[in-house]
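Changelog note: in this version the structure field was regenerated for every chain. One regenerated record is shown below for reference.
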Amino acid sequence: MTTTTPDALQWPYLTSSIPAVAAAVKRRYEDFRVIEMPAYEPCGDGTHTYFRIEKAGLATLHAVSDIARALGVASRQIGLAGLKDARAVTTQWLSVEHVDPRRVLALEIPRIRILNAARHTNKLKIGHLRGNRFQIRLRDVDPARIDDLHAILDVLGRRGVPNYFGGQRFGSRGDTWEIGSAIIRRDFAAALGLMLGRPGPHDHGRVLRARQLYDEGDYAKAAGAWPYMFRDNARACRVLAKSGGRHERAYHAIDARLRKFFVNAYQSCLFNRCLSRRLGDFDSVRVGDLAYKHDNGAVFLVEDAGAEAPRAAGFEISPTGPIYGGRMTRATGEPGRIEAAILDEEQLTIDAFGGIQGVKVHGSRRPLRFAMRELAVETGSDDAGPFVELAFAIDSGCYATMILREICKEALSEGLADGQTADDAD
């Protein structure tokens, strides 16, 4: 098993030459605002109702559950384009079929406001999203460090933001990638051991007890100890108890979407490793690169790096890294050797990502950087004290936390003020 770590603080910084600017974020929900930019607007006709919500201190899936319950439909009937942080005020689109828009507009649910509703012809699905706008207030920033903050933003504006997958991709315990690695290797006992056992500092209460019982081999009691939201964990434990400890059977009892999430986390971890090795020239292309066209998402093979250099400098194109999978197009030349070396270090071939029963892993390419658009920086003050507010837009699939990470590095504190609580982040 690899010893790779996905901890965001372990990947190199692009702006490492500029010292960290200490700041606090998310002291209150209003300090972190996210507004979805939809891929298209509802057309006004059709059997589906699109509706825009504003939620505060609530994870997207929790909001979906509350709305579905209020409408008397199953949660799976609610469509969504993306997941949003719980510790924030977020605006996003959802959809539901065969429900009148007026009925949706009449909903009154704690921590959720229905802003508007209109009909459309299809269900909203993950990825039907152009990007997100952010308004983020940083607090406790030393006024003497404002010039350094602007210097960091200048580098990110010129060269791009490293397109690392953020820490939320790897779970609160930081081990979803490791579970995915075990699944890829068909080591179901190791995958379940990580998912169901091995208590750590983030585990408390019933979760801690369930993990302890699993490690003791008392699968039946462990099944009963898991809280309701850990339904897959409890189901796997029940299967282990009934089957006499057959790990592969218990693994297949886990929801396929969760199994795929673990594998995706491992793919993300390997992409981050590739990006860390390309960070020195991640804003230029090499012969053999598969370059990403930012205007339409197309990918093409770079055969003449010199000819493509102006387009990379103008942020028209960027090199890509691997989301390993059976159908992934492979880079050649030196970029291809870097990507192949990562698999060699993992003692895997690309074929290992195919043929996992119940989990389709096709693979793809992901740009190594992303652009901040419409960046604005303002200073101000409110009843909670002074702040620096960053406003910007980024493409779907990119993490705003990677911008904060470059600014604050290890000196970012995150947490709600006393009296505020939030559902678990998505």
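Spot check on this record: The first strand starts at residue 23 and ends at 25. The first helix runs from residue 60 to 71.
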